[in-house]
Amino acid sequence: MRDYREDTGLKGIGVVACDMDNTLLADDGSMPEGMEGRIRALDEAGIVFAAASGRPLYTLRDMFCGLEDRMAFISDNGAAVVLRGKVVYRSLLEPAVVRELAEFTLGLGAGAPVACGLDACYVRECDRGFDAVFRRFFHSVAYVDTLDDLYERHGVDVNKFTVYLPGADAVSVRDEAFAPAFGERLSVTCGGAVWIDVMRAGVDKGTGLARLCERVGVSPADAAAFGDTDNDVEMLELAGHSYLMANAEPRMEPHARFRAPSNNERGVAVVVDRILSARGERAAGRAS
After folding, report:
1. What's the pLDDT tens digit per position in 161-191?
2. pLDDT digits 0-9 by tens, 97-154
3. How far from each other are the two terminal CA atoms of the chain, in whole angstroms?
C-alpha cells in the first residue's frame, strides 16, 4: 500500500467522504482541531465534504452543528443521503423485514436489537441497561415494549436495523448467523467490533457516495474517501483517491490505494490540508 504523500491529482477532487469512528474521530471521540475551518474551506473551494457513517442523520447533524448547509451526510451506512440540508436519498426496510430481523436477533440471544429511523432510534425497554452506549451513537433514543409493530403503532419508518453486541463479537456473529440468513436479500455489514448493521440490498456507504457524486456532478474517480473497517469497504473501493487509516486492521489493506496517518495522528486533517493546498486554499485555523 502506498503512502498518502504519493497520491497525485489532488487538484481535481470534488468530493471528500469520511468515516467517523476511528477515522475522523480520535480514540477519545474528538475531531481534529480546526476541522470546521477545513470543511468551510472545502466548501468555498467547490469541494463537498461528506460525513459517511453508520451513525444516524440526527446524530451527525448534532456533531456538525452549524455546517449542515456547507456539507453532506451519508448516514446509516448509505440509507440516507443529505446534501446541504436536503434529503436527496432515503432507503427504507419493510415493516415485515424489521419484525423478522428483531425475532431473529432475539432468537440468537446474542445482542440488543435497535431499529433506526431518520429522527430517532427505537430500543426495547428491557435493553435500557445499555443506554449510555446507545446515546453515544444515537442522540435520540426512544424505548418501546417491542420492535414488532413500530410502523403500525407509531408510524415509524425504519431505514437501518442494528444489533449491539456487548461481547465485541460482531464480525463472527455476522459471518455465522446474519450473513447466512439475510446476506442474499439484504445488505449486512459490521460497524466495528460491537455493531451489526442491516440495510436494504444494495445500500452501503459506497452506493451512498455514488448517489452523492451523481447529484453534484463529480465522477467517483475524483472523490476521496477515508475509512478503517468493514462498512467502509464499498466506499473505499469506489473512490479514485481511497485512504485507509494507519490504525485499521491489515485485512482492510486490499480495499484502498493509500495509507493515511492514524486517527490519533489526525490523518484525515493531514490529507485534507494537502487537497486544499492543491487548490491553492488554506483552512481557517490551520497552523502555518
Report:
1. 999 999 999 999 999 999 999 999 999 999 8
2. 999 999 999 999 989 999 999 889 999 999 999 999 999 999 999 999 999 989 898 8
3. 29
Query: Could you give the CA distance from residue 228 to residue 263 in angstroms, rounded to a whole number?
Result: 9
Task: Return the DSSP state at 253.
Answer: G
**Do the strands 160-164 and 141-144 form a parallel or antiparallel pair, or are they unpaired?**
unpaired
- CA-to-CA distance for 205 and 6, rounded, in angstroms? 25
Report the alpha-carbon angle 98-104-105, nearest 5.
90
Computed on alpha carbons and rounded to an integer, the radius of gyration of the chain in Å comes to: 18
Euclidean distance between CA atoms 39 and 32, whole angstroms: 11
Closest C-alpha to 19, from 182, 243, 201, 254: 243
Q: Which domains does the chain have, with CATH numbers?
A: 2-90+204-278 (3.40.50.1000), 95-200 (3.30.1240.10)
- Give the contacts of 18 (CB within 8 A, at least 6 positions apart): 24, 49, 50, 51, 52, 225, 226, 268
pLDDT band at 45 (very low <50, low <70, confident <90, very high): very high
Strand order from edge to edge, sheet including 112-116: 141-144, 121-124, 112-116, 160-164, 195-200, 186-190
The x, y and z cell numbers of residue 51, run together, are 460525513
Rounded Cα distance, 43 and 47, in Å: 5
